[in-house]
Design a protein that fits this description.
The chain contains two helices and seven strands. With 130 residues, it is mainly beta.
Length: 130
């Protein structure tokens, strides 16, 4: 393993995010719940083996995020400002895409609107060596 491994990057509409890749079941379950905050150029990408309707809830999250569902390198759904559940919330909000997705990008809340990301936008990846 090279010490100079390049950071995986996701780019949408000329805006790039340095991402943590969550490929394993455990990485996906933990997600960003152990993260205290995200800067504007950080995010997490979750990779699934096949497209499906993956649902998310914000268990143990400390801050809101934008959840961007991607299929075939195209945005299919954006959930803006997904909020962490309140303490003791009985029925936390479940976020589900309107179309199957094979990847999910989680970024700082508000950036999708700020950068005008929308359904149909193309998504590019760099340094995703397997």
């Amino acid at each position: 393993v090279s010490l100079f491994k390049k950071t995986p990057t996701v780019t949408i509409a000329k805006h790039s995010f340095n991402v943590t890749v969550a490929a394993s079941q455990q990485e996906q379950e933990v997600g960003l719940s152990e993260t205290k905050s995200l800067s504007e150029n950080q995010g997490m990408i979750i990779l699934f083996e096949k497209p499906a309707y993956y649902s998310f809830w914000m268990k143990n999250m400390k801050f809101p995020i934008d959840i961007i569902y991607i299929n075939n390198d195209t945005i299919v759904t954006i959930k803006n400002n997904a909020q962490p559940p309140k303490d003791n919330e009985k029925n936390p909000i479940i976020y589900t895409p309107t179309a199957p997705s094979d990847k999910v990008l989680e970024i700082k809340s508000g950036l999708s609107e700020k950068y005008n990301f929308k359904k149909g936008d193309k998504v590019n990846y760099e340094n995703f060596g397997n």
